[in-house]
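Bumping with the actual sequence this time:
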Amino acid sequence: MNRLVLAIAAVVLLLVLLLSSIFVVNERQRALVLQFGQIKDVKEEPGIGFKIPFIQQVVYYDDRILSLDTDSLEVTPLDDRRLVVDAFARWRISDVERFRERTGADGDFAIIAGQQRLQTVLNSALREVLGSVTSNTVLSADRVALMNQIRDQAARETAELGIEVVDVRIKRADLPEQNLEETFNRMRAEREREAEDERARGQEAALRVQSLADRTATELRSEAQRDSDIIRGEADAARNRIFADAFGQDPEFFAFYRSLSAYEEALQEQNSTLVISPDSEFFEYFDGDQIEGSARAADGVRPTNAPVRTESNVPAPVGQ
């Protein structure tokens, strides 16, 4: 009976020893075998591993790519416009042996320790890189190059910790609340100034176009007036030439025609009363002989002794 109990105890002890010497690493983990705090083995591939029971222990580290959201950080670019920056990083433990030596943490504490170390490095890189450019550069399309520069700088500083920085991205880069109103007012003033400049340039262009149009219109009117004066002068010259030719051909008929035109203008119903001496030259052709001679000259007809009667609306002079 005692032998059976001893045999069962030995089997149980062997099973315990066997189970204590076996450990499993899954595909999401890496493992370190420690003996009295010293690293004896590194298990990086998934599968079954062995250790000395009760003497050696196994610590596990997450082998996945982890994320870190940094706390809001105020940075001051070159133009002294402070920005509140939020960033996040993707990272992983690339060298568990070095990470253990630098942090002394394992398990969940390893992730916390890695995040703390990485955030310190990221804050330093953010301040250094964003402080070397203007705020407009941070807010422009050049942000991608800045993020890559931050990632590379952080990767160099965390490599000695056994941490690999996969990527860094800036989520937000805004002005502090106390500076927003001032910035908006300054932006509004700049836009208003630009609008005033545009309106001033538009008014200047309008005045320039209007002046050009006025000058063109004046030139066109002057040219038209000049041409009309030339044409009118030529017409007057042609008329005078015709009158001169007619006068040269028959001076007596021409004088008679001019007198008839004067009578037509002067002796109208709406005209005022004329007080003229009867022997005035104005009534030269009111004499029958003069009228007959002029008509005979105009028609080429021999004169007759028939008297010619003339009528006029002009009253006789007073006292006649």
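The tokens above came from a reply further down the thread. The first strand starts at residue 22 and ends at 25.
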